[in-house]
What does this fold into?
Amino acid sequence: MNKKQHKIALMGIGTIGKELLRRIKNDKNYKIVSLGDSSGNLIKKSGFTSKEITQIINFKNTGENLKKYDHNKQVTSDIISILNDYSIDTFIDVTASMTYDTLFKALDYSNVITSNKLPFSDSSNEQYTKINEKAIEVGKLLDYGTTVGAGLKIPNLIDSIGIDEIEKFYGCLSGTMNFISQRLNENIPFSKTVYEAMKPPRNYTEPDPRIDLSGTDFKRKIIILARLFGKKINLTDINAESILQYEHEKISKDEFLKILPELDEVIAAKFKIAQKEKKVLWYLGSVNLTLNEFNLGFQKIQPDNLITKCHESDNVLTIQPKLWHKPITLIGPGAGAIETVTGLISGLKDAIKIQNSFRPLVK
It folds into this structure.
């Protein structure tokens, strides 16, 4: 008797999507039925072969969209119909767009796994509650653990520990800003650190690094955790220090990257001040849930602080439960395609458990 293959629809074939496809294309547990980008979705009922997936990855590496991929395969923009018509077991969203409505509808047909923060941070508090409640109601997996901590899946860790009544948490939840903080304290020019964080093999930044440099990506992670702890919070509730100036947000990404070296001296001067005080400067988030204080920005800390021992894209988060004598500190790689995909595959394994046991599992 042949083992039932887990049918997958993937939306997003950027850095993370391509890495995921490379990792699972030869795994007989999975049948990849649908591959989609912003132009539409390719469908193959019998599942794409490893060779076909490699061809599609190579095609996407040229910068073209799937609509121009001519392989006599059906292309459609209606992902919800695909989930229904092809009995997709798990829908994976690795885009960086607001896909809340799509994910909400997808739960009617499939498990949902995503590394996309926007549906859980930029949605309203009511929407956030509603989608989590729906997953439980319909008995589907809703796994957005990789939205904070990538492969660490910090939301899942917190949920598994079963922590209640958290008073405070602080640390660096941005792999990009942690890496940049490390390099700036080593007196590496700011522009060089950003270029290093953007390019392979790191690929730490968002497609537009200004999302990281403005603190927006970090703010979204704070919102996801704060909501997990029961707080009703939106982006505007967080005080965030941005490295960018107003005019930097009004030009194209390419224009911004060209003028990036203009920020080198200004930023280096801040770090030299901290060094004269025998301290280091680090981009950190500090949250007091009791007082509803949410702050984000560069802070002076002692050189022997645990945070300074981070490497590359590590995330570090210290959580203080109300009744615990000591805080909990989580530390590990928090950005990068390989790390994120490891977390997504962990979610797929959970989805297969549901398929085999018919028991709902909500992450």
The chain has 14 helices and 13 strands.
